[in-house]
C-alpha cells in the first residue's frame, strides 16, 4: 500500500506531468511512455555452442570484438536515453526490446544507460529487466525493461509459437509481462515475429500464426480480468495493413472503430504519412509497432488512456550521406562495421492517467 500512496507524488515531481489535454483543460494527467526498439543483433563475443552466433565472435566474419561490442552498447544507451520527452523526462516507463542474445547483454545495456545518464548530468533511471531465453536458432530473444517507479511486475509468461504443419519450426517466444502501470493493471506482449526469409507472401502464414497467438494471449487475459489493459508491441516483420496485423491479430486503423476488447494500431496512420522504422530499396516499412487495446483508447473509468505515438528518428540515429541517407544508421552494412545503432528506429506511445 505504501507504493500506491507515494507513486503518484513521485511521478508528478520527477516527470512534471501536471498537464492538460486539449479538449479538457480542467483535467490533469500523469504521462507514461511505452517504447519498443529492435537492437539489431546485440550479441556478446562468445561462441555459444548449439546456436548460430559464430559470426558474432572475434574470429567470425564480422570480427565482433569486445571493442566493437562496447561501442554498440554505448551507442544503444545513447539512443535509449534520448527516449525521454518534456512530459517524461525520466524516460519511458516500459521499453520492449528484441534481438538480444542473452540476459548478460541486456544487463550491460542497462548499466550503460545509467552511465550515459550520469555523464549527461542526469539521474540514473535504474531500469529493471524481464528476460526469457527463447529457442530461436540464432539465440536471439525479446525482453522488457521497466522503471520500477512506474511499473510493478506481477507475473511473466512466455508463449511458444507452434506450427502444426511444421513441427520443426522454431522462432522467438512471445513474452507476456503483466503488472501494474501507474497502479492500473496492464499486460505487455513483447514480440519478434518470424522474418520474411523466403519471400513476404511465402512466409506470411508464419506471421499470421504469430498474430493469432498474440490475440489468443490477449483473450485469455480478458477472461481473467475483462478490464485488463493490453499493449502488444514488437518487430512484427509486417506493416500495420498486412494480414498478420490487421486480420489475424485484428488491429484496426481508426480509433472510432475499435471495441473495448479490440485493438487500435496508431502506427497505421504514421506509415500512411510516409514515416517508417526501416527502409529497403527506398521503400519505408513500419514493422516496429505498439498496438493498444480498445479499453485503453476509450479511457474507461480507472483505466489508462492512449494519447499519442511517435517514431524516434532523430538525426544522430540516421545515416547522414550517400545512397542510404536518412536510413537508420546500422551497425554493419555490406560486411563493413559502421559503428551505428540499429537498422530500425525506436517507436513510442504515451498513456495518460488522470490526476484527481
TrEMBL record:
Cross-referenced InterPro entries: Endo/exonu/phosph_ase_sf, Endo/exonuclease/phosphatase
GO MF term set: endonuclease activity
Top-level taxon of the source organism: Bacteria
UniProt entry tagged with the keyword Signal: yes
Gene3D superfamilies in UniProt: Endonuclease/exonuclease/phosphatase (3.60.10.10)
This protein's record includes keyword NAD: no
Pfam family of the protein (one): Exo_endo_phos_3
Keywords, comma-separated and alphabetical: Endonuclease, Hydrolase, Nuclease, Signal
Endonuclease/exonuclease/phosphatase domain residues: 34-351
First and last residue of the signal peptide: 1-20
Protein name: Endonuclease/exonuclease/phosphatase family protein
Amino acid at each position: 500500500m505504501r507504493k500506491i500512496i507515494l507513486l503518484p507524488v513521485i511521478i508528478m515531481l520527477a516527470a512534471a506531468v501536471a498537464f492538460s489535454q486539449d479538449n479538457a483543460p480542467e483535467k490533469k494527467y500523469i504521462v507514461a511512455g511505452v517504447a519498443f526498439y529492435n537492437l539489431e543483433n546485440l550479441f556478446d563475443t562468445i561462441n555459444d555452442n548449439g546456436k548460430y552466433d559464430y559470426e558474432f565472435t572475434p574470429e567470425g566474419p564480422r570480427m565482433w570484438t569486445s571493442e566493437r561490442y562496447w561501442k554498440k552498447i554505448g551507442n544503444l544507451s545513447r539512443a535509449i536515453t534520448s527516449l525521454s520527452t518534456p512530459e517524461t523526462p525520466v524516460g519511458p516507463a516500459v521499453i520492449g526490446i528484441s534481438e538480444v542474445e542473452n540476459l548478460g547483454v541486456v544487463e550491460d545495456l542497462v548499466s550503460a544507460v545509467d552511465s550515459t545518464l550520469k555523464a549527461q548530468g542526469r539521474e540514473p533511471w535504474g531500469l529493471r529487466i524481464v528476460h526469457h531465453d527463447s529457442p530461436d536458432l540464432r539465440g536471439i530473444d525479446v525482453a522488457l525493461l521497466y522503471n520500477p517507479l512506474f511499473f510493478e511486475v506481477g507475473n511473466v509468461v512466455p508463449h511458444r509459437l507452434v506450427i502444426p504443419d511444421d513441427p520443426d519450426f522454431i522462432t522467438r517466444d512471445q513474452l507476456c509481462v503483466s503488472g501494474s502501470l501507474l497502479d492500473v493493471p496492464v499486460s505487455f506482449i513483447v514480440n519478434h515475429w518470424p522474418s520474411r526469409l523466403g519471400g513476404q507472401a511465402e512466409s506470411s502464414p508464419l506471421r499470421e500464426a504469430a498474430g493469432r497467438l498474440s490475440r489468443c494471449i490477449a483473450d485469455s487475459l480478458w477472461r481473467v480480468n475483462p478490464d485488463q489493459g493490453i499493449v502488444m508491441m514488437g518487430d512484427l516483420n509486417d506493416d500495420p495493413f498486412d494480414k498478420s496485423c490487421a486480420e489475424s491479430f485484428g488491429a484496426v486503423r481508426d480509433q472510432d472503430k475499435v471495441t473495448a476488447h479490440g485493438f487500435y494500431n496508431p502506427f497505421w496512420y504514421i506509415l500512411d504519412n510516409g514515416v517508417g522504422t526501416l527502409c529497403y530499396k527506398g521503400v519505408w516499412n513500419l514493422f516496429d509497432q505498439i498496438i493498444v487495446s480498445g479499453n485503453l483508447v476509450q479511457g474507461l473509468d480507472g483505466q489508462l488512456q492512449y494519447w499519442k505515438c511517435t517514431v524516434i528518428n532523430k538525426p544522430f540515429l540516421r545515416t547522414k550521406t550517400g545512397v542510404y541517407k536518412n536510413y537508420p544508421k546500422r551497425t554493419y552494412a555490406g560486411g563493413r562495421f559502421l559503428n551505428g545503432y540499429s537498422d530500425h528506429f525506436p517507436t513510442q506511445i504515451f498513456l495518460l492517467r488522470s490526476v484527481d
